[in-house]
Amino acid sequence: MLFFLIYEESLKVTMESRMVAVLDTDVMIPCEISEYSTPELKIAKIAVEWYWKPSSKEAENIVYTIVSGVPKSYRNGARVDESELIKGNAALSLPKIQISEEGIYRCSVTVTPDSNQGTTVVELIAQPSVKLSPRTVELEDGKEKTLSCTVNKFYPLLIEVHWEKKSERDNNEVVPADDICTGVPVKNGDGTFNVTSKLELQPSLQDNGNVYSCVVGHKSFSIRQAFNATLIVTEPPPNFTWLAVILVLLLLGVIPVILYIMYFKKIQPGIFSATANKELKHLEEALVVFWLQGFRPKPLEIVFFLKLQSRNEKLKLCSWNTMTGSNIEHGEDTPLIITGEEEESSDLEKTLKTMFTFDPALQVKQRRTFDVYCNVNIVPDVKHMEEFELILEVRHEAFPDRLSTETISFKVIECTPKVSKFECEPPVPECGKLITLSCLVEDFCPRECDVCWLRGNNEPLDAISNTEEPQLDPGSNLYCKKSRVSFIPQPEDHAVDFIVQINHCKKVIRHSYPLMLKGYPKVTDITCEPNYPKYGTTLSLTCKVTDFFLSNINIQWLDGGIEISKGVDTKGPVKDSNGCLKLSSKLQLIPTALDHNKFIIFSVTYGDLKKPIIRDVYLKLPVHRPEMSEIKATPMQNSESISLETVISNFAPCNIKVTWYEEWEKISEDNPRNIQIGENKLGYFVSKLQFSPKGKDSKKTIRCEVFHQATQDFKETSFVWERKDPKPPTEKPALDPKPPTEEPAQPMKIECVTSNPKAGKQHCEVGEAESIDWPKVIR
């Protein structure tokens, strides 16, 4: 995959593509600034802006800015360390990060006059706490028991919970689904989730000693976690007293009491509610489910109220009771505002009621008990209720005060503006002639929305702008407005992005329009063939320049500011069909490990343009883990030292660290820069070490370890040195010094003739009457 970035000058911003943070911890999001021209950055010339955007939304939120040493935080506790910033470290510190802050963080840096930016995707995890109860299950044969596995406070939502059984006869086996009841994950107020899974047990004596495991798998666990419960099944003791007890109870009239308890005693309804999200989107339907379980007797009334944050009174929405069945009584027939006085419904109250619909239903259960289910559909309008409470009052004679209340709080989220019809008039702008840029900002609510125009990233546009008042669309109930700006472009405006910035509900939305002036060159993005470059394979980079008139155009291919001349093939300028000139330039190169993550720049200088037009391409080459040879040991002449060396090869990129150890003690560490390139265009390096054994040493293990930063990979090889026992010295015959006038020595042949095939066996076996030549060995 290729990443295309546009640089101005040489400023570089480096960020991690993705990072994982733990919920409710302090997080540091890295942002490294490099390739600036001074040893330290001057705080007066730096502007750093941090933006955050949820992954599922287009709108960005500004988090923190520091401009010329003046910080401003839009998020409680967010900060950038100024002492680190002048060293090139613009990392953003966020204390106690929450799930709602998950998303894409963008670091925009301006070091006058250059600017650049980078992004990091921040993902959050929360490790669940798991409770299995009971841990030891002891029950009699034929009895039933329920195991409950509660998984709390986990994030993200995706989780796996299943049950396994291990017996003495069989290995682990999955428990049948018929015996398992796993609930729907419930969202907590902090964005985490809870879920409960239950296992019904009705064992026999053969199941004694079985181990049941609740197995939980989640992103925050490196492996699935198992929580065990041991089953102990006992025989029920013989007991005949129950017969006597039954007779006594019958005599005392317990059966009527039991019948009363089972069929006639008043039972309070259990009140439960469920909703997918408590943050509702403007004019998007949401469902809330209420259910009242297991109540007796049948008469029961439910009343729904609405309470707005801006009002202290409750607005009655509807009422329903089990005796009238399907007849829902809406608020029009009763006082709407609970103030003690009956007043007619206002227009606002009528509008609020149209946002809610109710669908209650009654179910008859065993033993004369009843359940009530009610689906509430809400279509919220942020103009009328930004935050509200939906209140359910349940009236039943089993409650101590004959009344119980359930309240759910909601927040309605605004609609983010969309930008469309971004146009330029005239369509082909010319230098020195008035032009107008316009765009339509639509589908937003509430109506408060500011629009400003910028040149480049952050430079305010010195021009006349006109933004209309917001207009309400009756169909969508959303607002729209048009904004335009007029100015006379200059040569330096060619190929510059002109940006419309929209500030809405503390969110910033940006859209850009690249201004291409008539008669000035248009430069395409650099294309790469093949799309996925490989080491040692020819790579072709092509860039085209069109729609220019002057032939005095200068193009350059640059690598780190140094012009590339080898492998460049430029065709043109030639006349195009529209009467303008065009050219095409191709750069062919064979990538090596030194080219990993390198930027190749195509620069166009033309006429009165003050700055060249720049296009660049990021060489996304694959990484290769290093390979190591065995350590080679070579004794050094006239010394007891040993020269050790190992070959490190086939790695890319070339950033490695080589460390030598004697046993476990570090004796050498190096970050080599003189990396060579092998025939396969990958990294090649020979690491050497001079080892001098000490007099008392008899055996040593020497290890060489290589750390490859790009792959975070460690490789090592080792060599075992052992001291050899010295041989006893042998006496050599004394040689008389040769007299100065002695004749030169003549060649001499020593011959051993034998008929014994075993003679000279260490050299070769010979037949009878064969001769053997002995080589001269110099020691």
From TrEMBL:
The keyword Membrane applies. InterPro entries: Ig-like_dom, Ig-like_dom_sf, Ig-like_fold, Ig/MHC_CS, Ig_C1-set, Ig_sub, Ig_V-set, Immune_Resp_Modulators. It comes from Podarcis muralis. SUPFAM superfamilies: Immunoglobulin (SSF48726). This is Ig-like domain-containing protein. Residues 722-779 are annotated as: Disordered. Keywords: Immunoglobulin domain, Membrane, Transmembrane, Transmembrane helix. SMART domains: IG (SM00409), IGc1 (SM00407). The chain crosses the membrane at residues 240-263. Residues 722-741 have a biased composition (Basic and acidic residues). It comes from the Eukaryota. PROSITE patterns: IG_LIKE (PS50835), IG_MHC (PS00290). Residues 9-126, 128-230, 417-459, 521-561 form the Ig-like domain.
